Structures are given as structure tokens and as C-alpha cells.
Amino acid sequence: MTKRLWVQGSKELQWFDDQIMGFEKTKEAIKVKLGEAKANKLCNEAIYYIGIGSNDYVNNFLQPFLADGQQYTHDDFVNLLTLTLKKQL
After folding, report:
1. Which is nearest to 28 in space by CA: 36, 20, 38?
2. pTM
3. CB–CB of 2/60 below 8 Å?
């Protein structure tokens, strides 16, 4: 499972875990500028969007020559993707 996505405006793929760490750094910078209480309020009231493409499923499960497609059943692979995303969020 790749867990990598195109970042808007970027020419490179980034791991989703790296994007989460980048967000944590951004939150810390906001805390420095606004103070912890205001930063927490801002982040808690924000609307977040996570766009998920089909690349993990198509590139890793439907391609018969890749190990993930041979290692997991369809339902197991969908559960793996779902559980991985839940852990990351």
C-alpha cells in the first residue's frame, strides 16, 4: 500500500504520514503566533478535506502481478485501507 498522494502544486508524491507531520508542524507555528488556546480553537473549528484517490486500490490490489493483490482478498484489502486511514487520522 503506497499511502502516497500528489500534493496540489507539487511535482512529487508525498507520503500521507509526512503530510500529517507537516500539519502538526503548522499547528505548532500557529500556536506560537496566536497562543495555544486560540490556535486550538481555530484548528478545532476548521473544516478539513481529505481527498482519497483510487491509486492504492487500483495500483496495489487490481494489478495481478503485485504482492498486495495476491496477499489479500478484496474485503481484507478494503479493511486494511480503512484501518490504515483511521490510524492516520
Report:
1. 36
2. 0.57
3. yes
Q: Which residues have C-beta within 8 Å of that of residue 47, sequence separation ≥ 6?
A: none
CA 19 vs CA 5, 48, 52, 71, 78: distances in Å: 9, 13, 13, 28, 22
Q: Which amino acid is at 60?
A: N
Q: Which residues contact 81 (CB under 8 A, 6 or more apart)?
A: 1, 56, 57
Distances (CA, A) of 80 to 11, 60, 83, 88: 28, 12, 5, 12
Per-residue confidence band for 48, with pLDDT thresholds at 50, 70 and 90: confident
